[in-house]
Design brief:
226 residues, alpha+beta, 2 domains, 3-stranded antiparallel beta sheet, two-stranded antiparallel sheet, 9 helices, 7 strands, 43% helix, globular
Amino acid sequence: MVRRIFRDFAAGLGPRAIAFRLNDEGIPAPGSGAWGFSTINGNRLRGTGILNNEMYMGRLVWNRQRFIKDPDTGKRQARPNPDSEWVIQEVPELRIVNQELWDLVKARQASVSASRDTRDTSSPDHFREKRRPRYLFSGLSKCGCCGGGYSMISGTLLGCSTARNKGTCDNRTNMRREELERRVLDALRHHLMDPDLFAEFCAAFTTEMNRLRMERRPTSAQRNQN
């Protein structure tokens, strides 16, 4: 299965298309459940995801990253360690992907990354913008069929993330962001005029938005890295 994923990616299939095929064939993902984009693609710099697991090419790498506790949220956050602190051991007996296929995958990843890297990601403004909710209901919309998130699938349309990334939800209905916002705001105007209900809504909305902001809030270490 690992070799198949590497071959499909090297041949031009994207991680999402690969995940769709595996889910359509009923092949379970690692740890059971459905395949998703991130399971295959992962993070190239952190060595996560099927396509970045160096064990498949006969190498074990430890201490690639460390975890620190965010003082604002109390959650653990991963931080990369410098290459000099990595612990690497060659284990050729574990190799299942040959060097030529590995190199083809790395070359395509680099090409895809370069084509997307058109913005200056070093500026603090870019860092803050990436984590700030862009729209009124960002992170708050859910699919009524599977409970997955409804996210932007184009410049104007919202769609089910599970249907788009895993193919395990049949909900292919998309909605214009402006229309969703209009419907929700109209409902609030007409059905939350009762002072007690409005106060309850405001409290719940403020709590949820604060939670989302805290999750996206960069730590001092992150700001320094930028």
